[in-house]
Amino acid sequence: MKFTAIVLLTLVMAAAVCAQRPRVIQTGTPTDATKVAPAPAPQTMKAKYEGGIFGYNKTMEGTLSFDDTNQRLLFRKDQKELFIPYNAVTSAFADTQKRQPKAATIAGAIPVLYSLPAHFIKKKVRYLTIQYSDPDTRVAGVTSFRLDNKDLVESAVFTLANKAGLVPRGDIYVRKRDDAEAKKTTP
Known about the structure:
Layout (H helix, E strand, L loop, with lengths): L1 H18 L24 E6 L10 E8 L4 E6 L2 E6 L3 E11 L2 H7 L14 E12 L4 E9 L2 H15 L2 E3 L2 E3 L4 H7 L2
Antiparallel strand pairs: 1-2, 1-7, 2-3, 3-4, 5-6, 5-9, 6-7, 8-9
């Protein structure tokens, strides 16, 4: 009986070992050149400014425009104008966050068992996030603009990167430093 159990266990182990296959290793990783470029962004789009530019702390809804004649990204609301020059943009990327809508927050505050599902309601919010360093004013920071959907954000990031002279690095676009500038900062 013990001998039969040992033989049976050995056969099962041998079958398990034979069933395993070697892993296939990818020789090349997809590069940024293989990615399909999104469609160019519209010249003007609805956006919500979320903060980050010195002197403008409140969120505002307005329009975001590519002002090519003045080489800048322009946000307008009524009489207010915020802008970031293309040459001041150091990086740009699309950001996504999950937020709970106000109605779900209010419904979740009611102390009733039926309000429990309201705590699980989340909505994806899409942002165009820009890091900038203005050489004229020596002001640097990070700002974000909330846009309607994923495709609009991706096309806005791609268009801004092309206009500002940024290069892709993974999912973000960055400004490469000049050789002379890099030599000044490295020991």
